[in-house]
C-alpha cells in the first residue's frame, strides 16, 4: 500500500485518484455471484424452453436429458434457479459455464462427475488454463462426450506444436483417425504428461508388446523410458526416433569396429579389439556416419540370444 501511495507527486493527485476509485466501487454493477440470485426459485423446464426453444429441442437427445438429471428442473440442475432470469431476461441472473468459470472457484460439473479421473482435476493444468469445462465440452451437444469439436482437431486447437509433429513423416496415426489423443492421454489428470498410466513406458508397451521382455540381454534405455529414443507425436527420423542413426546411438555409445578404423589403407591392428583382423580404407569415416547401427544390432530393444562376438559378451543385441 505504501509503495502505491508513493507513486503520487502530491496529495491533490493522490486524493483525486483515491476518490475516483471509490466512485467506481459505488457504481451499480452486475451481480457478482456468477449465477442465480439467492432469492431465485425453480421454474421448471417448460419455462426455460419457452425462450430457449432451439436449445431445448436439441437437448432432448443429450445424455443429461435422457437421465432426467434434476427431474422437471433438468436445465436448472446445472444453471441454478431461473425465476429472476425468466422475469427480467438478464443473462447475469443465471449461471453459465461459458462465462462464470474461475480456476479456484466451485465447478458445477464436478458436483456429479466425481469419478477417480476427476479427483485431482482442480490441480490439473487443463483446468487452470482452459475457461472451464465448456472450453472443450458443449453441455447441450449430442456429440460423443459432448465435445465442442471432434478429436484430434479439438486438441490441436491449443497444441499446435503436436499438430505439426503429427504431420511429420513418421508419426502415430492420429490424423488418420486410427488412434485418438485420449488413448494415451488423460486430459483430466493432474500429471504433467497426462499419460493414462503412471508409467509412460508401460503405456507404450500396452500396444507394443513385442518389446516388453524381459530379455536376457537388455538395452538399458528401453527399461527406463521409451521417450529417450522416440518421440510419440512424430519426427522426421524413421520409427519416430528423436534423431537419425547413427547419431542417436553415438550420443551414448562410442564408435567401434570398422566405424573407428583410421582413414588409411592397409593392414593394421584395431585399437579397441586387437583380436579382430581388419583393414582400413580412406572411406572408413564415411562408413561410420553412413551406416545405421541397427543394420547389425537389429534387436535393439533386447534379445535372449547371445551375439556371435566374443568381446561383446553376448550383449551386442544382434540376431
For the secondary structure, the number of strands is: 4
Query: How are the strands of the largest sheet arranged?
Result: 1-4
So how many helices?
15
Largest sheet: 2 strands, antiparallel
Helical percentage: 25-40%
Instruction: Tell me the structural class.
Output: mainly alpha
Low-confidence stretches: 1-5, 23-33
In what range is the share of β-strand residues? Answer: under 5%
**N-to-C order of helices and strands:** HHHHHHHHHHHHEHHEEHE
Gyration radius over CA:
32 Å
Distance between the termini: 73 Å
Describe the structure.
This protein has 319 residues and is mainly α. Among the domains are: 45-93, no CATH class; 247-291, no CATH class. Helix content is 29%, strand content 3%. The chain has helices at 2-5, 11-26, 45-51, 53-59, 63-66, 74-79, 83-88, 125-129, 153-156, 160-166, 181-184, 200-205, 220-224, 247-250, 284-290, and strands at 217-218, 266-268, 278-280, 302-303. Helix 3 (45-51) crosses helix 4 (53-59). The longest helix has 16 residues, at 11-26. It is elongated. The termini are far apart.
